[in-house]
Write the structure tokens for this entry.
Amino acid sequence: MDNQKTNYVLLVNAGAMELYETSIEHLMLSSNYDFLVYPFTDWNEVINDLEEWEHYRIIDETTYKILHRNLCIKIRELLKYF
């Protein structure tokens, strides 16, 4: 059985980080979708992705779930125009 602890990361560019640092609600209510959240168990899984983003934050599972849902809603709305 695998007992590795799951961690969660928020990857963001400058605009999204500014919103997130103000409050998670500011990011969620904005039209900004320039962020990514995902779970990982080993830093080697995310090290390449970190280089592509300006900022990152380790977040808890609840924040991960909230932001993941928000991002899915925003992307779904964006895809309606394609």
